[in-house]
Amino acid sequence: MQVYGIDVIIRITSHLAFIYLTFWSLKALRLDILFRSLQTPQIRTLMVLLSITIGYTASSFFLELIALSKNLFLSGI
């Protein structure tokens, strides 16, 4: 899939939105229970890295799903 102009803006926006949504969702988990006390920088770092990983993967899935749907309708089936 070639990406130009407005598609780049949509992809960046989608990735950032899914990363934020994942970070927001992960805040509901009590990850601090799994770690020793006074380890808050490590917990926050883990949450950010998990948010990036899960958010990027979910965003890529939905963008690929949209691209496949668009290709399906354009092929005339």
Helix coverage percent: over 70%
Structural class: mainly alpha
Overall shape: elongated
Terminus-to-terminus distance: 20 Å
Number of distinct helices? 2
The number of E-state strands comes to: 0
Give the ordered list of helices and strands. Answer: HH
Average pLDDT score: 87
Strand content: under 5%
How large, in whole angstroms, is the Cα Rg?
A: 17 Å
Task: Write a structural description.
With 77 residues, the protein is mainly alpha-helical. 73% of the residues lie in helices and 0% in strands. The protein is elongated, with a radius of gyration of 17 Å.
Would you spell out the secondary-structure blueprint of this structure?
Layout: H1 6-26, H2 40-74
In short:
The protein has helices spanning 6-26, 40-74.
Salient structural properties:
77 residues, mainly alpha, 2 helices
